[in-house]
Amino acid sequence: MVQFLNKSSNPGSGKTVSERMRRKSEARRLDILHAAARVFRRSGVAAAGMREIAEEADLSPGNLYYYFSGKDELLFFCQDRTLDRMLEAAETARASTIPVGDQLRAVIRAHLHYTLDELEGATAHLEIDMLAENLRRGIIDKRDKYELAVRALITKGVKRGEFAPCDAALVARAILGALNWTVRWYRPDGAQSVSAIAEGLANYLVRGIAAHPQETTVPVRAQSGGRK
């Protein structure tokens, strides 16, 4: 006799299908995110429209709205995901046993990779004011948490004698300001790769606060005519 299976006879099957659909939807959202980032970089966040993003993602506008309710939500997802990855990089660096200077270099390299190499960063990373207030608050909270993580590394470096005494809050903001500004001038078709820019800036910025600059890592030779 043929037995027909239902959800009660195999309770795990529904969960498996649901998880598979969730992963598929998440992957599609990431594809859309990368398409949107290309549009943001090309047209600017303010000028970019959902129809242009849909075309870039090879979707109809109706299908795009199935995944994102509007540009606000898409921009939020872009910033939120980038900040999550930066926070994870900061925590990984903090938990390592390498010198604090190398921890800070690792955070700087990750920051630039996620905002320049990973397209979901780019200029959209700076456009907080374009978010609705209810979305903006969460992004600001994560940015504050990330700044505190960078500040904590600087404070730890000072306490261990690796960094010269300094105002950790001021230095952290100066470093983050320099890193964030790269999204304004970086061009993918420029002379320097993201890795070269990240390595050069990491060494330059850490050497600037080192207690003994001559003992720090020698910076990678900068190529002329960076990606500007």
As for the CATH topology of the largest domain, it is Tetracycline Repressor, domain 2
How confident overall, as mean pLDDT?
Answer: 83
State the domain count.
Answer: 2
Order of helices and strands: HHHHHHHH
Q: Structural class, please?
A: mainly alpha
What is the overall number of helices?
8
3D shape:
elongated
Strand content: under 5%
CATH H-level superfamily title of the largest domain: Tetracycline Repressor, domain 2
The CATH class of the largest domain is Mainly Alpha
Main β sheet profile: none
CATH architectural name of the largest domain? Orthogonal Bundle
Low-confidence blocks of residues: 1-5, 217-228
Distance between the termini: 73 Å
Radius of gyration: 22 Å
Tell me roughly what share of residues is in helical segments.
Answer: 55-70%
Describe the oligomeric state of these chains in a short phrase. Answer: single chain
The number of distinct β-strands equals: 0
